[in-house]
Automatic annotation (TrEMBL):
Keywords per UniProt: ATP-binding, Nucleotide-binding, Transport
ABC transporter domain segment(s): 8-246
Upper lineage: Bacteria, Pseudomonadati, Pseudomonadota, Alphaproteobacteria, Rhodospirillales
Recorded superkingdom: Bacteria
Gene Ontology terms for molecular function: ATP binding; ATP hydrolysis activity
Keyword match Transport: yes
Record's protein name: ATP-binding cassette domain-containing protein
Length: 255
């Protein structure tokens, strides 16, 4: 039986700013419907890799394939069409401060669909309800907590029913309780939407809670030095650096 085509395939990808190389020759695959975590130490290029995967940074070399189709080797028009499949939550939430939560979530629907204002409002209410923010449609970002802003950003990310979600440090800055709630929400959305989820994270509790698979980026080697389920890599990773990184997290989770 032929091996299934991965939802996402990163092939021979090198990330650089001018002559400064961030990561080189990255090669990994993300299966449909899995939660895939990009992890590693500070400054290793986790968010830079995510930007290359969603079209915000052209790689110095290599490509990203979605269901076997080239992303960087195709036309701008095709790349924009592929990009419509993505929902993205940036680390800061990136909500417009002058717009209500309903207006923030409704913006992609207004830009990319021909839905009527009533239909947009109905979808906005549904998406906010999915992330636990029903009734907060008329609130501004400054009027809600950091955890609620993350959830509002997630509601906007799923506004167009994407089949691939990219989440950049979704738990950063949250207390442990809100971080766990957000982890649970990510898994619920993955299951309810049949979505593939790519998460950039250094939060070890979240990594152990949600990851099906992962890649570990090393700043010193400028390369990926481990691939696999983090719960297995704790013991099986060839790199002592990876085992040390994850065992610290396993100890914190057990405590």
């Amino acid at each position: 039986m032929a091996e299934a085509t991965p939802r996402i395939a990163v092939r021979n990808l090198t990330l650089a700013f001018g002559t400064f190389v961030v990561q080189r020759d990255l090669d990994f695959a993300v299966a449909p419907d899995e939660v895939f975590v990009i992890m590693g130490d500070s400054g290793c290029g986790k968010s830079t890799l995510m930007r290359a995967m969603i079209g915000l940074l052209r790689p110095a070399k290599g490509d990203v394939l979605y269901d076997g189709q080239s992303f960087w080797g195709t036309s701008d028009e095709t790349r924009m069409r592929l990009n419509r499949r993505f929902g993205t939550l940036f680390q800061s939430g990136a909500l417009w401060s002058s717009m209500t939560l309903a207006e923030n979530v409704g913006l992609p629907l207004q830009q990319f669909t021909g839905l009527s204002p009533k239909q947009v409002a109905e979808i906005v209410t549904l998406k906010l309800a999915l992330v636990g923010l029903r009734g907060f449609e008329d609130y501004y970002p400054s009027e809600i907590s950091g955890g609620m802003r993350k959830r509002a950003g997630l509601a906007r990310a799923i506004a167009l029913d994407p089949d691939i979600l990219f989440l950049d440090e979704p738990s950063a800055g949250l207390d442990p309780l809100n971080s766990r709630r957000l982890d649970d929400l990510i898994l619920e959305l993955r299951d309810s939407m049949n979505a593939t989820v790519v998460v950039v994270s250094h939060e070890l509790a979240s990594i152990f809670a949600i990851a099906d698979n992962s890649v570990f980026l090393c700043a010193e080697a400028k390369a990926a030095i481990a691939h696999g389920n983090p719960r297995e890599l704790v013991e099986t990773a060839e790199s002592a650096k990876v085992r040390e990184f994850l065992k610290r997290g396993a100890t914190e989770v057990a405590a």
